[in-house]
Amino acid sequence: MRATIFHGPFDLRVEDVPDPVVQLPTDAVVRVLRACVCGSDLWSYRGETGRKAGQRIGHEFLGTVEAVGADVRTVRVGDLVVVPFVWSDGVCDHCREGLTTSCEHGGFWGSAGSDGGQGEAARVPYADGTLVRLPKEAVSDDRLLAALLTLSDVLGTGHHAALGAGVRAGATVAVVGDGAVGLCAVLAAKRLGADRVIALGRHEARTDIARRFGATDVVAERGEAAVEAVRALTRGQGAHAVVEAVGTEQSMRTALDIARDGGAVGFVGVPHGSGTGVDLTTMFNRNVALRGGVAPVRAYIPELLPDILDGTIDPSPVFDLTVGVEDVPAGYKAMDERTALKVLITNA
Questions:
Q1: Which SS3 state, helix, strand or coil, does residue 64 take?
Q2: pTM
Q3: Domains by residue range for the chain, with CATH
Q4: Block means of pLDDT (10 residues each) for the chain, length 348 residues?
Q5: Which terminus of the chain has fewer CB atoms gathered within 10 Å of its CB, N or C?
């Protein structure tokens, strides 16, 4: 089969690799129908992580079950399934508490020795704890497949950020970051009942999606100018709930500065850069909370899936470029150059 392999910074290649097979009785093999490129994948692409040559890449995908181990009970051959970006056993203490990303037996796609989602198929460890069945009829609906694919990461991550920020009915929410996760956080905030959602972003195509997802205001400024703009929109008080979806020192500082006294920041941007931008003294004096981290999206899928299926939410517009598996490197280049927001990869 074909799969995307990391060889070094800006050097991804689609190559022949052995077909995945069931190795343990708890495994399943999933034939990938849709996958995508994540903003966090770009850090590997740019050489800013410790990924080594020869590793697979890609952690957001869905597909059909092609084989199952003898102990698998919740899915069967032919099922359409979504695959969260971390596999998990579903039974350890962390999984039972909803923190599937800390599973005692879990792991990340593309880590050393594992398959990646940006290929034709993948072996899924702990299939019962990881995979979630989807309606088979979705296979014939491209828009719905794209929307369902967001359950593997970005929609659940945006939801996690909104929960961490304490979004509630009637709240004023600000979202720092106009990438796919930030846009999904806008959608999540509106879904949770926010009265006002301020999207911070400078790219018109992206802020247009933010408005479509429920943003009531857009702030294009950055740094201190952005802080002043948000405070001008909120009678000088700031937002009750702030999502930080970038991961830089500047974005974190902006998020904390635009939070209302007594408010909270939910952070899901993968941290990178020289510092954190966290001023504990200011947070203490203003009673601003900071919560977030790696989103346990597997725990959120049962709640979010029905709203996608009935059309209450539609996150599919975050995908603005579609490529086949052979063109995955070109998709990375487009996202790196910011000519694409989020790249959808299709195998069918």
A1: strand
A2: 0.96
A3: 2-153+296-346 (3.90.180.10), 155-292 (3.40.50.720)
A4: 96 97 98 96 90 95 98 98 98 98 96 94 98 96 98 98 98 97 98 98 96 98 96 98 95 96 96 76 96 97 98 98 98 97 92
A5: C
